[in-house]
Design brief:
With about 130 residues, this protein is mainly β. Helices cover about 0% and strands about 45% of the residues. The strands form two sheets. Strands 2, 4, 5, 6, 9, 10 and 11 form a seven-stranded mixed beta sheet that branches. The protein has a four-stranded antiparallel beta sheet with strand order 1-3-8-7, with no helix packed on it. The protein is globular, with a radius of gyration of 13 Å. The termini are far apart.
Length: about 130
């Protein structure tokens, strides 16, 4: 199973920015589809964004135009750049890997599509 380690979370004021990183242990990272999910206090975990092995991306409406997902295959790492943060972005953010995506261009969005998960990193946005 692929191991995922998130970092970069913290406390930021509304309107600020953070960049999350997710380092993976997989040897064939370039083939994985990668995603970010989040769980806000008292709510279920929800999809944020994902990127296919060839770089196709998809975003939840709530983060579109504010968040950017990217990947560096040389570093086995996926990033989540979060700008214009809002208090409602406060959540634990989880990185996930789909190690056997159906297609190279497919962007998975359902939790069940992902095989491996990180432990999560806390993001808190103060008003």
């Amino acid at each position: 199973q692929v191991q995922l380690v998130e970092s970069g979370g913290g406390l930021v004021q509304a309107g600020g920015s953070l960049r999350l990183s997710c380092a993976t242990s997989g040897r064939t990272f370039a083939r994985y589809a990668m995603g970010w999910f989040r769980r806000a206090p008292g709510k279920e975990r929800e999809f944020v964004t994902a990127i296919s092995s060839i770089g196709t991306t998809y975003y939840a409406d709530s983060v579109k135009d504010r968040f950017t997902i990217s990947r560096d295959n040389a570093k086995n790492t996926v990033y989540l750049q979060m700008n214009s943060l809002k208090p409602e972005d406060t959540a634990v953010y989880y990185c996930a890997a789909d190690v056997r995506p159906t297609t190279a261009w497919g962007v998975p969005r359902r939790e069940t599509a992902f095989d491996s998960w990180g432990q999560g990193t806390q993001v808190t946005v103060s008003s």
